[in-house]
Structures are given as C-alpha cells and as structure tokens.
C-alpha cells in the first residue's frame, strides 16, 4: 500500500527529503512524493520516546521519515501537527497539512483528513487536482465528508452549482430560449414605451402629430408581443425552478450513504451509472414480502442493474420485538462482525471442506467495484433515509397515510417513478432496458420527473 507525501520544497531550493528515485521528478512538479507506508502497532510505537522537533521543517522531515522507515502513522500524525504549531512558512504548512491529510486517511479519520486537505487548498495554495489524482486519498474521495467539502474548496463545485448544471442538462435549449425571448421582450417593451409616447402626441393633435390609427395598430402589435414573450419567459423560468427543486432533492438522495461492510461506506452518488436503486420502505413484513416478490424476476432485474434498498420503519422502542425480528437483528450483528455462519453458504461449505473461500473477482467501474453492486444495499444511517423518504412522499404527492411505498431511481440519479405498495417488478422488467442496451445510454433518466 502506498501513502503519498507532499514534498517540502521552499521556493528556489531543492527538495528537503528524497526517499526514492521518483521523488526528485515529482518534487520538481510540485507534486506529492510517494513513500511506502504501513501502520505499525500501537505497542511498538509506545516503546520509542517521542522525538521533539526544533522547527517546522524538522518536524515535517522527521514525520516523513517516521512514516517511511518506521511505518508509524500515529507518530507521523503527531509530528505533522507539531510542525503546524512551529510557525511554518507557506510551503511547510502546505506540506504538513497535505501529509497530515494522507496519514489521517490511512487511519480512516475522514473528517479530520478532509479538514487538513481543505486548509492546504484554501489557505496555502495546494492545487485541488493534486488531491483528486492521489491514489492514497481514494478512500477519502469516496466519503460524503469529501463531497461536502468540495463546494468549499478553491476549484471545487458546490452542491447548488451541481444542481443547476444538472437542471440545465435536462433542458439544454432552455437557456438559449431565455436569452432569445428575454432580448425580444426587452426590445418589445422599449418599443411599447416609444409607441405610448407617440400615442400621447397623436391624441394631443397638431400639425406634426403621428397618425392616430397607425399608432393604435403599432400599440396593439407591441402589446401582444410583450404579452406573448412574457408568457414564454415566465414558462421557462417557472419550469426551471420546478426542475431545480426536483434536482436538489435528487442531489440530497445522492448524499445518502450505503454500508457495504468492511468499513466501506459510500454515498449513493457513487453508484450512478452502475446501479438502478429501488427503495422499498415500510414495515418489516411489507419490505421482506416485496423483496421476496422480486425473486421471480431476479435475473431479469439484475440484468437491468436493479438493486433494492430496504428501509424499515421500526416499531416503537417500548414494543417488544418478536422472535423473528430478534433473529434478523442477530444475523445482522454477526454479519457486521464478519462471523460466518449466517447466510454465507459458500463460505460455510468451504470451511467444512477445509479450504479457503475463493475471493470475488472485482473490477473498478466508476468508483465502485463489481462486488459493490449487490442485489440488496444496506442503508448506513436509516434515520437519514427515512427523513428523505418522508419528504419525498410529500413532495411527490404520495399518501402519507400509507406507510409502505417504493421509489425507483435511474442510473443518472433521477427519480423515475414512485408509488404506494409493492414495486411492480414485472412492469420494471418490461420498461427498463438492459444495462448494455443502447436505450440505456440514450434515454436513461428521461421520463416522468416527480
């Protein structure tokens, strides 16, 4: 595993530390220097006395050395933090913050890592592209903390800007229409003012007064033009605002997170282009029944990249769970702990035969791997999902009296359809094209928007 470190290179000087043959080349471009790093055990780290640096440069160089040779993330993080307290110059602060962000990412302290990278970019001139291309920050870039921070970073894009761009992409000719109709409306409005002045002069009479009938005719034409153009502009502006509200809700859906196990938590945004989620929400009995009803079309649904996201609105806390619910919860706990014995038939057979289970073949596709595109995706924070679903039901006009509902999402993250009761699995198979079908590339996400 590689851990990338930003080289400390004050202007006009050579790199302060060179750890490999590739270091000088990367340092000359102002890019991070690559070091191999693995975290040592806390017990080993506690045996050696803590080094007390004498300057920010010393702290950063020592931190990088600790990271490279001793493979001690904890000590490296400490030294980088100390370096930031020793009055570093801009180059030193940039290197310390970037290195700190990389080390914290390895420790899976994503909020702190995001803060460090954000400071390096906004306060000390680190280029965002460096962080976007760094393989050692891949885990961080998959996190929602990073997504939210992009809108605050120099060179990044805010959620509102993304929503605006997606809204414009749904109606690419609306902006040119607004410009055209807006310009014509301004011209017609100006002409109407001129005609009104001429009409006043015609009514007053006189040898140089305009002809009244001609003036009235021009007045009627310009008034009609202003009315028609105003309607066209109002229609486009209103439709843009309505679609912007829809897109904003869809961006909120993309922020909801999915728990893939093994400490992997990805926002639903990462599944765009690879998965068509069907959110099934309601009572446990309803959700399990709805998913079971899909078994007859399981292969057809998987060919269409359909995955279900079950959201169960649990019973009140003071209600005793029945034995079946307790068993489900117990299975879930075993699954989180990595314990084999519930639902992993292949693993049990392999264990019984005394052989290791074969690893799944994965290939990177759009930020996720094939193994991530499961039939059943588990919500990471059920309360966030529930809040979004309740708002979506109200937004789309679904009956709030009916707790059970479904929401089908397209590959591009747009909500295609929703309704109360169980999803119409057969209808979805008939209407959704295969993942590799040309219709998917041309029409996915087009249709009734709610």
Automatic annotation (TrEMBL):
The keyword Nucleotide-binding does not apply. PROSITE patterns: TPR. The chain crosses the membrane at residues 178-203, 215-234. Pfam families: DUF3493. TPR repeats lie at residues 57-90. PANTHER family: PROTEIN LOW PSII ACCUMULATION 1, CHLOROPLASTIC. This is Uncharacterized protein. InterPro entries: LPA1-like, TPR-like_helical_dom_sf, TPR_rpt. Signal peptide: none annotated. Keywords: Membrane, TPR repeat, Transmembrane, Transmembrane helix.
């Amino acid at each position: 595993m590689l851990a990338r470190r930003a080289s400390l290179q004050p202007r006009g000087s050579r790199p302060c530390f060179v750890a490999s043959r590739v270091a000088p080349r990367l340092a000359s471009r102002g890019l991070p220097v690559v070091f191999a790093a693995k975290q040592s055990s806390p017990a080993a780290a506690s045996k050696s006395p803590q080094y007390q640096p004498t300057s920010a440069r010393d702290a950063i160089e020592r931190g990088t050395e600790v990271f490279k040779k001793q493979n001690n993330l904890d000590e490296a993080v400490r030294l980088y933090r100390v370096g930031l307290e020793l009055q570093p110059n801009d180059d030193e602060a940039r290197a310390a913050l970037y290195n700190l962000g990389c080390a914290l990412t390895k420790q899976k302290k994503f909020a702190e890592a995001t803060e460090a990278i954000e400071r390096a970019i906004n306060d000390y001139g680190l280029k965002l592209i460096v962080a976007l291309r760094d393989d050692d920050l891949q885990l961080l870039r998959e996190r929602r903390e990073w997504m939210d921070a992009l809108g605050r970073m120099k060179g990044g894009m805010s959620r509102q800007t993304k929503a605006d761009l997606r809204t414009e992409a749904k109606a690419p000719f609306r902006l040119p229409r607004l410009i055209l109709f807006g310009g014509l409306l301004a011209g017609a409005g100006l002409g109407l003012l001129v005609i009104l002045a001429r009409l006043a002069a015609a009514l007053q009479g006189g040898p140089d007064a305009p002809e009244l009938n001609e003036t009235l005719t021009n007045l009627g034409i310009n008034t009609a033009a202003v009315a028609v153009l105003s309607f066209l502009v109002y229609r486009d502006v209103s439709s843009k605002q309505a679609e912007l509200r829809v897109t904003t809700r869809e961006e909120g859906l993309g922020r909801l997170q999915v728990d893939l196990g093994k400490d992997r938590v990805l926002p639903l945004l990462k599944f765009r282009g690879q998965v068509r989620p069907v959110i099934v929400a309601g009572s446990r009995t309803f959700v399990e029944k709805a998913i079971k009803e899909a078994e007859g079309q399981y292969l057809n649904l998987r060919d269409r990249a359909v995955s279900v996201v079950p959201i169960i609105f649990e019973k009140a806390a003071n209600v005793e769970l029945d034995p079946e619910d307790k068993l489900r919860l117990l299975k879930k706990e075993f699954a989180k702990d990595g314990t084999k014995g519930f639902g992993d038939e292949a693993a049990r057979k392999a264990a019984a035969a005394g052989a290791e289970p074969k690893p799944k073949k994965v290939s990177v596709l759009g930020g996720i791997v094939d193994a991530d595109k499961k039939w059943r995706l588990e919500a990471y924070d059920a309360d966030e999902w529930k809040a979004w679903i309740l708002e979506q039901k109200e937004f789309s006009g679904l009956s709030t009296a009916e707790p059970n509902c479904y929401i089908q999402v397209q590959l591009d993250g747009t909500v295609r359809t929703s309704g109360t009761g169980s999803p119409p699995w057969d209808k979805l198979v008939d209407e959704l094209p295969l993942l590799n079908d040309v219709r998917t590339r041309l029409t996915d996400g087009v249709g009734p928007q709610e």
